[in-house]
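Exercise 7b. Backbone tokens:
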């Protein structure tokens, strides 16, 4: 029996999502980040064109992209659990579960320097520069604005 989270494909897998989470956390200028904030930034980075952050969507154009968000949140959750278990991400319990990359996590992704990783990092950096992530409500408002445009 297969898990609901894709096990037999590298695409949309916990492994792929874990690598994106590590890239995202390595670019963060606000720490630690909540699981929801990580999921929202990841979604915005992969669909950057939709949010005016890049000229293309890293995961292609899809008119139903916002319906993918619940599954994306599950993948982020599973990825964070694995990353914490492997010591690549640490948890701060000060304000609930919040995450940041460890030195070991940074060392793990140091060799990720392909076009996709560079483009993903560039959009993530733009998100950190554009939005006040000390006030995560700014991302929530952006999601509401764009998801209602889709309908």
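Sequence design result:
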């Amino acid at each position: 029996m297969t898990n609901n989270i894709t096990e037999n494909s590298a695409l949309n897998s916990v492994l792929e999502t874990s690598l994106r989470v590590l890239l995202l956390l390595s670019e963060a200028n606000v720490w630690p980040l909540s699981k929801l904030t990580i999921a929202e930034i990841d979604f915005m980075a992969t669909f950057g064109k939709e949010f005016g952050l890049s000229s293309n969507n890293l995961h292609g154009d899809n008119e139903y992209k916002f319906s993918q968000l619940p599954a994306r949140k599950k993948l982020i959750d599973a990825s964070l659990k694995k990353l914490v278990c492997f010591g690549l991400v640490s948890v701060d319990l000060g304000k609930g579960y919040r995450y940041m990359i460890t030195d070991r996590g940074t060392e793990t992704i140091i060799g990720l320097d392909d076009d996709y990783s560079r483009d993903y990092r560039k959009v993530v950096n733009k998100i950190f520069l554009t939005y006040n992530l000390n006030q995560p409500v700014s991302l929530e408002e952006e999601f509401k604005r764009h998801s209602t445009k889709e309908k």
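Instructor comment: The radius of gyration is 15 Å. The beta strands are 33-34, 89-92, 98-101.
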